[in-house]
Amino acid sequence: MTLSALIRRTIVQWSLWRSHRETRRAIPQLAAIDKRRTECRRHHRRGAAALDLEAKRITTAALAEKRVQ
Fold first, then answer.
1. CB count, 10 Å around CB of 10?
2. What is the DSSP letter of 69?
3. How far apart are CA 2 and CA 22, in angstroms?
4. Quick check: 58 and 30 in contact, CB under 8 A?
5. Maximum distance among all alpha carbons in the chain?
6. DSSP category for residue 44
7. Helical H runs in the chain?
8. pTM of the entire structure?
9. pLDDT tens across 7-44, in order?
10. pLDDT at 68 over 80
11. CA torsion angle for 60, 66, 67, 69 (degrees, to 10)?
12. In 10 A of CB 33, how many CB atoms?
């Protein structure tokens, strides 16, 4: 991997981490869903896909609300 690719990859990963953190702070329900999803996956339980859909629904509703304001 070239140095420029490594730098670009690092910057993109940092940007994604920061936006994920900001989103979870702005919408606390997503942070709770992340914790429940982690538990489901750690214990090999069903339900992680349903939690993904719930998170998607919450995010869509938040973005639609922001657009209206």
1. 10
2. -
3. 30
4. yes
5. 45
6. T
7. 3-26, 28-42, 48-68
8. 0.73
9. 999 999 999 999 999 999 999 999 999 999 999 999 99
10. no
11. 150
12. 20
As a whole number of angstroms, the distance between CA 41 and CA 35 comes to 10
CB 54 within 8 Å of CB 33: yes
The CA-atom distances, in angstroms, between 1 and each of 9, 13, 51 are: 10, 16, 36
State the Cα torsion 10-16-17-18 to the nearest 10°: 110
**Contact predicate 27/62, CB 8 Å:** yes
Q: Are 41 and 48 in contact (CB under 8 A)?
A: yes
Tokens of 13: 């990963």
